[in-house]
Amino acid sequence: VGILQADDLVAKEQELLEKFTTKHSIIVDCYERKLSGREIENRVAPHQQKITALRQEIDNLVDYIDGAILGVGLHHLVVTFHWLMSNCSVILGILLIDCS
């Protein structure tokens, strides 16, 4: 009778240990996913700031181009367009380097 009770206790203890291990694994997985999500947000934030700054710069350039068309003439528009094209490639190159 004592051996059967000991076997039952060992089996119950093993079952409780398995349940605890499963719960522990689930908690660790959830924590790691949450941490990973924060890590991704932290890595994305600087790129979002750069994109916002670039959008503002583009808006300023469009305003300048509009002013060039209305007031200054075609020559300034062409110069501005060439400047915009050369700087866009540099800016995109920087973004591509930062993303990799």
Automatic annotation (TrEMBL):
GO biological process: protein N-linked glycosylation via asparagine
GO cellular component: oligosaccharyltransferase complex
Membrane topology: Single-pass type I membrane protein
Signal sequence annotation: none
Keyword annotations from UniProtKB, A to Z: Endoplasmic reticulum, Membrane, Signal, Transmembrane, Transmembrane helix
Coiled coil: none
Location(s) in or outside the cell: Endoplasmic reticulum membrane
Function: Subunit of the oligosaccharyl transferase (OST) complex that catalyzes the initial transfer of a defined glycan (Glc(3)Man(9)GlcNAc(2) in eukaryotes) from the lipid carrier dolichol-pyrophosphate to an asparagine residue within an Asn-X-Ser/Thr consensus motif in nascent polypeptide chains, the first step in protein N-glycosylation. N-glycosylation occurs cotranslationally and the complex associates with the Sec61 complex at the channel-forming translocon complex that mediates protein translocation across the endoplasmic reticulum (ER). All subunits are required for a maximal enzyme activity.
Family membership noted in the UniProt record: Belongs to the OST1 family.
Protein name: Inhibitor of growth protein N-terminal histone-binding domain-containing protein
The organism of origin for this protein: Opuntia streptacantha
